[in-house]
Design brief:
This protein is of the alpha/beta class. Helix content is about 35%, strand content about 15%. The structure holds NADP nicotinamide-adenine-dinucleotide phosphate.
């Protein structure tokens, strides 16, 4: 018997934590693997694991996306325990090591560029490298509507991107590291969609923009935001998009409202 399983990477707080909460509560048969840098310090995640309603379905693994051997080890563990994966959501990101995006060129430095791009773009790609095989074996059984595997694809890989990573949409400039990292992430999504979409078992790979959400990442900018989403609202919208995906959507970049964004 196949046990439906979803992996949320970057699950200690913010959108990643909310994905775990929502997935566990909406689909009683689903196992959720939550990865984070420091499981011991991830208090909210540990609290969720101890709740009777999660029924032992939440599994926490330590993964720093800047560490490929940890990613590989986690993939080995998931393979041993579940043998396949229905959904992978790459959530982890930083705005910049300082917590604020660069406002002009004078703020740009190599360390900021490197750390942001490694965390936001290279890490998710390495997740795709090590978990891709498990996704090809997945049944896509993550929808709230039905537990039946979707007939036209195997697993789903979601990279949580950001509208500011759209080159076409960039009218304001600034935020060099973050914008570049998300543009690179979108290229990774496209490439993954091609390589993991070649075989008989096609993995759907998409980039999704979650809206501006009330989390630590966006906190310095909240006062300028008119339509600030709660994590609950954003994740609910994102899961509606994920549930609706077909192979024809693979390689694309969507908003929380399923609006197609230009790269
Ligand atoms: N919030 C928004 O308005 C907004 C808008 C557009 C896009 N997004 C995107 O949404 C996603 C989630 O962001 P959020 O708003 O939920 O941010 P958040 O609350 O700051 O959470 C970021 C997460 O990334 C993890 N992380 C950072 N570096 C990591 C690393 N090297 N390895 C593993 N995990 C790492 C953090 O874990 P630790 O606890 O270990 O630090 C934390 O769990 C990101 O991809 C972000 O770019 C957010």
């Amino acid at each position: 018997m196949v046990v439906p399983a979803a992996l949320i990477q970057g699950a200690s707080r913010g959108l990643g934590l909310q994905f775990c909460k929502t997935l566990l509560s909406r689909q009683p048969g689903l196992n959720v693997i939550a990865t984070c840098r420091s499981p011991v310090q991830a208090e909210e995640l540990q609290k969720l694991k101890s709740e009777p309603s999660t029924g032992g379905r939440l599994h926490i693994l330590g993964v720093d996306v800047k560490n490929e051997s940890q990613i590989e080890e986690a993939a080995g563990n998931v393979e041993k325990q579940f043998g396949q994966l229905d959904l992978l959501v790459n959530c982890a990101a930083i705005l910049h090591p300082t917590g604020r995006g660069e406002t002009s060129l004078k703020d740009v430095n190599l360390q900021g560029l490197q750390e942001t791009c490694i965390t936001n773009a290279f890490g998710p790609l390495l997740m795709g490298k090590h978990f891709g095989k498990l996704l090809t074996k997945g049944g896509g059984s993550i929808g709230v509507q039905s537990n039946d595997a979707k007939p036209n694809h195997s697993g789903v890989l979601v990279n949580i991107s950001a509208k500011v990573g759209s080159i076409t949409d960039n009218a304001l400039g600034g935020w060099y590291s973050y914008r570049m990292s998300k543009a690179a992430l979108n290229m990774a999504t496209k490439n993954l969609s091609i390589e993991l979409g070649r075989g008989k078992s096609k993995v759907i790979c998409v980039s999704l923009h979650p809206g501006t959400v009330d989390t630590a990442l966006s906190r310095p900018y909240h006062k300028n935001v008119k339509n600030l989403f709660t994590t609950e609202h954003s994740v609910s919208k994102l899961l509606t998009v994920i549930d609706s995906l077909t192979v024809l959507d693979s390689g694309k970049f969507f908003t929380y409202d399923r609006e197609l964004l230009p790269f």
